Fe/B12 periplasmic-binding domain-containing protein (Bradyrhizobium frederickii), 310 residues
Amino acid sequence: MSTSIPDHRLSRRALLGAGAAIGGTAIAGPWPMAFAQTSGPQAGLRIAALGWACAQTILALGVVPLVIPEIERYGRLVVEPPVPPSVQEVGLRSEPNLELLQSFAPDIIVIDPSIAAAVPRLKLIAPVETFTIFRPGGHPLDTARRSTLELAKRLGVQPACEAYFARFDVAMAGYREQLRGRGGKPLYLVSEIARNRALVFGPNSLYQEVLDQCGLRNAWTGQSGPWGHTSVGLEVLAAVPDARLVLMTSRVADVEALLKASPVLQTLPSLRSHRLTVLGNQFFYGGVPAAERFARLLAERLPRESHEQG
């Protein structure tokens, strides 16, 4: 991209140092970035997370909130970090149950901007912090890092945040190495294929920054909306004939059935040449944890270029 963004990549010395420093805190678990936190939030702060992006980030810092909305759907669509069994359901992301929320007596409520209109009512329950990732003209991953650090300071877990960032940078360096030499073909990053249309991710998406860091190219260079994606006709995905299609969802249970059901899909050069990579679900409104998951799954799947379908 032509605009400049901060480069958080570690030098070789810092990389080795960070790897050594966090080696003692890593724990085995279903989420590769999991770590054991040595100190909790300020004085046992009771935290309510009313959005998935803020909840994902709070969990990534090793903090367990009291409540999260739509926990079952979070598990399917956001996936990581997993929600501990102690966390309670608090209604919908768009409409949290305020009476139930008040009964938990939180010390602080953290929200995503999507429910900013509810702030006056939420403030009657507890102080409110808004966790922001997407800003006009901004770079989502860099904004997410800054917002995560600000939130960590507010929650009193800045050391945990710094350790998490070190782990993230080490992980990204590893994915970059795994993907070295795999940037030959541009990638169409696609989700939500339905009725001959697809959601495609562009230059202002969270994923673009991951592609840039990993030396990969985005096949979609057109305009995209404020959250980094836009809806296009499937025929548009033929504009770059040598591109690879990256399907970023697990909700298509049978990819072969999808391909057979859509005559337009069958005409795409990427699919006629079997250049298809299917990733697990991606939370494209997420922050640092979402970027790490995307990069990790790319590193796991894209190296299989010699196979017909990755």
Observations:
- The domain at 184-301 is CATH 3.40.50.1980 (Rossmann fold).
- The chain is about 35% helix and 15% strand.
- Residues 1-29 have pLDDT under 50 and may be disordered.
